[in-house]
Write a structure and sequence with these properties.
Blueprint: E1 5-8, H1 14-24, E2 30-33, H2 35-50, E3 56-62, H3 66-75, E4 83-87, H4 92-101, E5 107-111, H5 119-124, H6 131-144, E6 149-151, H7 157-163, E7 168-171, H8 190-196, E8 200-203, H9 205-208, H10 213-221
Parallel strand pairs: 1-2, 1-8, 2-3, 3-4, 4-5, 5-6, 6-7, 7-8
The chain binds orotidine-5'-monophosphate.
The site of orotidine-5'-monophosphate (OMP) has 18 residues, from strand 8 and helix 9.
Catalytic activity: orotidine 5'-phosphate + H(+) = UMP + CO2
Keywords: Decarboxylase, Lyase, Pyrimidine biosynthesis
EC number: 4.1.1.23
């Protein structure tokens, strides 16, 4: 079985992205390319890294009116990412239109509550609940809209999986026990997230900031 770990290649520097991708390619389940990479390297950069043969998770966290998001998804062609993110808070019509615009082989997943937010952050943007209730609400919305799954932290994935048994659950905010947390607030160990029901783990700095990314990745994989 291929690894559930998608390595987040968060850099605008194509040389560095190529080097990290080449280093981890034998032991990663896929590559996650997000805003930092995409804003600088665009579709061409994505296609170049896709040539390595690993599944590509394109993390653009699209969030706009339904027509704009649907057209943006169409404009990604000829990229056919294995996974694509949109923001659940865009609402049901946006989610439905994003899914309808995506290629058949692309899992469209909705970001629920960013792992960099805690309860106080949620209150400050007018959400008077905790991350658990908000993730459950948005998971229900994503499911009703026909999406493939959600992005949430390891803390909520167990409850979300319970309400959506065949959902695809992406879990970032992954930190091995000895890792720096950085800007993440809702974190979980790799093993904890898998045990709680994650389908895939997104791991960036604990791998990419290591002196030897492939060794760091294999050490994490050994804990699963
Ligand atoms: O959609 C994501 O991938 C995502 C959602 C979320 O709630 N939190 C989150 O950290 N991510 C992404 O996951 C990666 C985490 O990177 P590290 O914190 O370096 O492991 C980054 O590329 C984030 O953009």
């Amino acid at each position: 079985m291929s690894s559930p770990i998608f390595v987040a290649i968060d850099t605008p520097d194509m040389e560095r992205a190529r080097a990290i991708a080449a280093a981890v390619k034998r032991h990663a389940g896929g590559l996650k390319l997000g805003l930092e990479f995409f804003c600088h390297n665009g579709r061409q950069g994505v296609l170049e890294l896709a040539d390595l043969g690993l599944p590509i998770f394109l993390d653009l966290k699209l969030h706009d009116i339904p027509n704009t998001v649907a057209k943006a998804v169409q404009a990604l062609a000829p990229i056919t990412p294995a996974v694509l993110t949109v923001h659940a808070a865009g609402g049901r019509a946006m989610l439905e239109d994003a899914k309808a615009a995506a290629p058949a082989g692309t899992k469209v997943v909705a970001v629920t509550v960013l792992t960099s937010l805690d309860g106080d952050d949620l209150n400050s943007i007018g959400i008077n609940g905790n991350s658990h209730s908000q993730v459950e609400r948005l998971a229900g919305l994503a499911r009703e809209a026909g999406l493939d799954g959600i992005v949430c932290s390891g803390n909520e994935v167990k409850a979300a999986r319970k309400q959506w048994k065949d959902g695809f659950f992406v879990v970032p905010g992954i930190r091995p026990a000895d890792s720096a947390v950085g800007d993440q607030k809702r974190v979980m160990t790799p093993r904890g997230a898998i045990d709680a029901g994650a389908s895939i783990l997104v791991i960036g700095r604990p791998v990419t900031a290591a002196e030897h990314p492939d060794e760091a990745l294999r050490a994490i994989a050994a804990t699963l």
